[in-house]
Amino acid sequence: DMGFVLAALKLKMAIATHDDNTDLVAVTATAIQDLNKTAAKPNPTGPGTPTNPTTNPTGPKPTVDNTYGGWELSLQTKKYTALINELTTAYPKLSQSRKAGALLMLGRAHLARSVTENAEKEDLRDAGLYFLAVYVENDESQHAPEALYTLAQINLKLGNTAGYRQVLNSLIEMYGYDNRSDWVKKARAEIAK
Predict the structure, then answer these.
(1) Does the structure show a pLDDT above 90 at 154?
(2) Which of 29, 35, 52, 64 has the most CB atoms at less than 10 Å from its CB?
């Protein structure tokens, strides 16, 4: 679980380095160092010892309803930053079956926040990274086709038309057997333009 977070941070650092964004490089480097320190700390309760989430000092008590519906509600009520913070914290503790949905919601929250007045330009890139992570982490997830389609749209917004077409073609190649998928239908329609 921490491996994914570390890989995402390293990817973010590579993008920031490529873009000569020294501030983001510094912040990301610090985050990587902090993550490595956290991973090196031993579990105070010991391996295999059950913990009580209400009294466990090592982790925050979740306030987001860890269900897809709860995450959707946070998006609908435009609580993007709160959802991003909660899911980023909760992600390592989620069951494997919920992780793809959490990554999709992180991508959606960053994408939604990227079109607000106070948008950070990194939000669009972060959204793309999370959508890519859905596919990389679990390409068999029900969320993978939507994640790839949305990743293609982000490439288009960033002016990367080659990446846009490549991702749409990958979506069709991977999930084209499911002609009922709205995401595949949309991808085929866009490729045909």
Answers:
(1) yes
(2) 64
In this structure, are residues 174 and 155 in contact, taking their beta carbons and an 8 Å threshold? no
- Mean pLDDT value across the chain: 78
Contact assessment for residue 152 and residue 167, using Cβ atoms and an 8 Å cutoff: yes
Which residues have a Cβ under 8 Å from the Cβ of 147 and sit 6 or more positions away?
103, 104, 107, 130, 131, 132, 134, 135
Q: How many other CB atoms sit within 10 Å of the CB of residue 87? A: 22
Q: Which residues of 103-117 are buried (b: 16+ CB within 10 A; e: fewer)?
A: bbbbbbbbbbbbeee
Q: Whole-model pTM?
A: 0.66
C-alpha distances (whole Å) from 62 to each of 3, 51, 53, 88, 156 are 22, 14, 9, 11, 35
Rounded Cα distance, 88 and 133, in Å = 13
Confidence of residue 53 (pLDDT cuts 50, 70, 90): very low
Calpha distance 82→76 (Å, rounded): 12
- What does the pLDDT read at residue 107? 94
Query: Rounded to a whole number, what is the distance in angstroms from the first to the last CA of the chain?
Result: 40
